[in-house]
Design brief:
- The structure holds two protein chains of two kinds.
- Helix content of chain A is about 60%, strand content about 10%.
- By secondary structure, chain A is mainly alpha-helical.
- In chain A, strand 1 and strand 2 form a beta hairpin.
- The longest helix of chain A is centred in the middle third of the chain and has 27 residues.
- The N terminus and C terminus of chain A are likely disordered.
- In chain B, helix 4 runs antiparallel to helix 5, helix 30 packs across helix 31 and helix 31 crosses helix 32.
- Chain B is elongated.
- The mean pLDDT of chain B is about 85.
- Classes of the chains: A mainly alpha, B mainly alpha.
């Protein structure tokens, strides 16, 4: 790790050596969280409207790419408490687990099921077993993007 | 029976971990599996000998005709009893043979797995299941022979055994498939009850025989077996005398009654191969100085004998073969175990160095003497009784072929006597002083538990010799399960018969040959070198590696443009030619549905041309991105927001990744190869483009069945619970595909990470 000035904020050095751009930093700061939220929306809405785990994961990935362009891999490391590999593993486990769960309750592998839950505040919520599967896909895609950014994007001698 | 197989598997799995804690005691744990098997086999004894087989059908992959139908009949009973009985003894023996060392748990587990696989072969009634277990024995024996994995010689020997038996096994699988298809079933008992015939069956059987010959070390495939003596001695005793090498004999014995008469080449081939093996093995055994190799070549010789007996397909011979199989397993396992004891105590197996061991270790000597005498065919031991039975059957033989066979078998038995005597003399006798160190009088004595397994085996040889009636029932059941009712009996004393005379001749000639042993050795030395099977093996392996290297050099030349060109050329040359010959464009083709499409398509074309002609890498990547975005817009115009969104995001991410990679690459493309073959590239890419466009139009126009999408649209909400059909397809209808794809993503991510790390380490290394 090379020492870099500044904490989270608009004043640290990006992958290039030139001065950070204030406009870029401000825009990214504004867009990043919105994009993450949008990606979650896509994930949860995907079963009935355009979206889904794959697209949602890609949007989240794109948000991280913006963050990377602005702050480099250090910034990503600070943002993400878990490693890309952990995300990949969690996602795959979740997807396979959904398939196995169907097996456990007596169906075929990956057979989908529906439950209607009565959640306080939200009222009646319909959930299908496709959702955890989709979350698995989402995690894998985010993990892939993060993994590529942290390995390919890291400077020489840098581990993120 | 399934439970017994599962028990073997379970113990094999836990043994490596248990070995770390138990040390040598892990062999007690592993003895449980064969012990339970042996107990079960003994419990079935009376029923099976009386003629009722035990069946346990179990479906596995019915679509392939692969099932795990287990069946215990007379022959299986004999084999299963040997496998489990000798298995227990070998486990006990191993406990004392090995000193504490790492890897014993792994060894014991592999040995147990091997025992289970071997059991599977003899219990399976399905050809494909037999093949599965057969290959399992090859793999486990590979691991066992190569146990001393720090020794190059052990690794080479393991590989040799693996290559020869594996290649034979593949041929055998082909033969099984031919046989199974011809018969319409893969059930062994059904095939034997109603054997198919025809040219295909003949070829199939030839392939099966090939597999059986390699497994049972028949000439000319035999050299792997002496090489396999690099394995620890318990392995040699178990795999290379008592069990695995018998798998080929077992299979030949099973098939012979049904096919020996009908398939023209069967008897000449099987008998001549068996006889050749018997003579070559016996002859080579007379020259060996390593007592383990004396036994190894002796085993080859005996396997040849067994193949002659059980392969001819005559009931009396099968009967004698079954009895000899038992006798051989008992005395040869005992002798191998003795070799292990000698090796363990004296630290040498060279018979020129061993001297005076007989006086030092009388008990061991006694066991070995009984074993060797049984092998040589001396009365009143089981080896004598069974050899008599074989002679008896051959004397009442079958024409000139029968007479030749008889002469060959007697000659082989003379050799057997001679090398048996050589083994005993070489291991235990006092020898005149020579230039070599003499090891013997001062070696430590073995523990009694160490010797007990060998003593038990030798004791059985004596017991069954005096009371052959104990095994007559079994041998009859063996012959009966090979579809032959026989009216012969094992007896110690036949009266003065031709067979007895032949036994006398055998012993007399054997004694003479042993007394002349030095002259025989010298004569073997002076014979001109003949091309050996070992040399042929080494040569073929060398040429295979050489050929593979050359072929790889041509096919995998490392040039990405060449690979791409080959792939694309294939695509244009094969499907495009077929397409041009018989396809027509659909009616009612429209050029475009809206002006917007034309505009976007034009932009895409410009971007594509830009990407193809750009001289700088960065510009080319940007143009490529332009193509992608353009296509995304086309999707949007067509009303596929999902696709458009995905395409847009993928395109963006790809662009970013490209830029990240470009940091490590030169700015501009290397101009040279580009200019050299530019014209060819343009022609090729134009051809591919035209082909793809044409193909898409023809494919879209040639639909005859209703599109699958209508079905998906109708079923998405009620069955998948979602209104977004694309998503329902991804997570439900084709959920398995998606799971495969995200697995690929994970693998790709890990691959990228490790590649980058490896590259970075190499950069940092200097």
């Amino acid at each position: 790790m090379t020492a870099r000035p500044g904490k989270v904020g608009p004043h640290h050095v990006g992958p290039g050596e030139e001065e950070p751009s204030l406009i870029l930093a401000t825009c990214v700061g504004a867009i990043f969280h919105t994009a993450l939220l949008f990606s979650l929306f896509l994930l949860f809405a995907g079963h009935n409207a355009p979206g889904g785990g794959f697209v949602g994961g890609l949007v989240a990935g794109a948000a991280f790419v913006l963050r990377y362009v602005e702050g480099g891999t250090d910034d990503l490391g600070r943002l993400m408490p878990v490693s890309a590999t952990a995300l990949l593993g969690a996602g795959l486990t979740m997807a396979v687990g959904t398939g196995l769960a169907a097996l456990v309750v007596g169906g075929q592998f990956l057979e989908s099921g529906k439950v209607t839950l009565d959640v306080p505040l939200l009222g009646e919520v319909k959930a299908t077993s496709a959702l955890p599967f989709d979350i698995g896909v989402y995690l894998v895609v985010v993990g892939l993007v993060l993994g590529i950014l942290t390995t390919l994007g890291a400077e020489k001698g840098e581990r993120a | 029976m399934v439970l017994l197989l599962a028990l073997h598997a379970a113990i094999a799995v836990v043994a490596p971990a248990a070995g770390a804690r138990l040390g040598r005691k892990v062999f007690w744990l592993c003895a449980i599996a064969p012990a339970a098997t042996f107990a079960w086999v003994m419990a079935q004894w009376s029923g099976v000998v009386a003629g009722t087989a035990v069946d346990q059908p179990l479906s596995w992959v019915p679509g392939l005709g692969l099932s795990l139908d287990l069946r215990l009949d007379g022959f299986s009973l004999l084999m299963a009893g040997l496998i489990s009985g000798v298995g227990v003894l070998v486990m006990v023996y191993s406990r004392y043979y090995f000193s504490e060392r790492p890897g014993l748990g792994r060894f014991a587990g592999t040995l147990t797995a091997f025992a289970g696989a071997m059991l599977g072969i003899v219990l399976s009634d399905n050809l494909l299941a037999i093949y599965v277990f057969w290959e399992l024995t090859s793999v486990t024996s590979y691991l066992l022979i190569g146990f001393e994995d720090s020794k190059p010689s052990a690794r080479a020997a393991a590989l040799h055994a693996m290559l020869v038996t594996g290649a034979g096994g593949l041929a055998m699988l082909g033969g099984f498939v031919v046989l199974g298809q011809a018969a319409g079933t893969y059930s062994l008992s059904a095939i034997l009850a109603d054997p198919p015939s025809g040219t295909a069956v003949s070829w199939g059987l030839a392939m099966i025989l090939l597999g059986a010959f390699t497994k049972s070390a028949q000439a000319p495939f035999h050299p792997w077996l002496p090489g396999a003596m690099a394995a620890p001695t318990p392995v040699s005793a178990y795999l290379h005398s008592a069990t695995m090498v018998k798998a080929g004999v077992y299979l030949i014995a099973r098939l012979a009654p049904a096919f020996a008469a009908g398939v023209g080449y069967w008897r000449p081939v099987v008998i001549s191969v068996g006889l050749t093996t018997m003579l070559v093995g016996g002859y080579r055994a007379l020259r060996q100085h390593d007592i383990k190799l004396v036994l190894a070549y002796g085993t080859i010789s005996q396997l040849g004998f067994l193949v002659v007996l059980v392969g001819a397909g005559y009931p009396e011979l099968s009967f004698a073969g079954g009895a000899l199989l038992l006798a051989h397993s008992l005395f040869k396992a005992a002798l191998f175990l003795v070799v292990g004891i000698v090796d363990h105590q004296a630290h040498t197996r060279d018979l020129r160095e061993l001297s005076g061991l007989g006086r030092r270790m009388p008990a061991t000597f006694a066991v070995a003497a009984v074993g060797a005498a049984s092998m040589a065919g001396l009365p009143p031991l089981l080896g004598f009784v069974t050899k008599e039975a074989a002679y008896e059957a051959l004397v009442h033989g079958h024409g000139l072929g029968g007479l030749l066979t008889l002469i060959g078998v007697v000659a082989g038995s003379v050799l057997t006597f001679a090398y048996g005597a050589r083994f005993l003399w070489g291991t235990f006798a006092d020898k005149p002083p020579s230039g070599r160190p003499r090891i013997g009088p001062e070696v430590p004595l073995p523990k009694w538990q160490f010797l007990a397994p060998a003593a038990l085996l030798a004791g059985l040889t004596v017991l069954f010799g005096f009371a052959p009636v104990l095994v007559t029932g079994l041998a009859e059941a063996v012959a009966a399960s090979l579809l032959a009712e026989v009216d012969v009996h094992l007896v110690l004393w036949h009266g003065f018969t031709p067979a007895l005379a032949l036994s006398g001749v055998t012993i007399a000639l054997g004694v003479a040959l042993f007394l002349a042993r030095e002259r025989v050795e010298r004569a073997q030395d002076h014979l001109p070198a003949v091309p050996t099977a070992q040399g042929a093996y080494e040569g073929s392996v060398r040429n295979l590696v050489l050929g593979a290297t050359r072929l790889t050099g041509v096919v995998q030349n490392g040039s990405l443009p060449t690979y791409l060109a080959i792939i694309l050329l294939t695509m244009v040359a094969l499907p495009a030619v077929a397409l041009a010959r018989g396809a027509s464009l659909p009616d009612g083709l429209t050029f475009a549905e809206s002006p917007l499409q034309v505009a976007v398509a034009a932009l895409v074309l410009v971007a594509a041309a830009g990407a193809a002609t750009a001289r700088g890498r960065f510009a080319a990547v940007l143009f490529l991105g332009g193509v992608g975005y353009g296509v995304a817009v086309l999707f949007l115009i067509q009303g596929a927001p999902d696709l458009a969104l995905t395409q847009l995001l993928i395109e963006t991410l790809a662009l970013v990744i490209f830029v990240l990679v470009l940091r490590h690459l030169p700015d501009r493309f290397d101009p040279k190869p580009w200019r050299l073959r530019e014209r060819g590239r343009i022609v090729l890419s134009a051809g591919v483009g035209v082909f793809v466009a044409f193909f898409v139009m023809v494919a879209a126009g040639s639909r005859t069945a209703p599109p699958v999408s209508e079905e998906y649209l109708a079923r998405a909400l009620p069955e998948g619970g979602g209104r977004n059909v694309v998503n329902v397809i991804l997570v439900d209808f084709r959920g398995m595909d998606t799971m495969g794809e995200i697995t690929v993503l994970v693998v790709a991510a890990l691959g990228i990470a490790s590649l980058v790390m490896a590259g970075r380490q190499r950069e940092e290394a200097p």
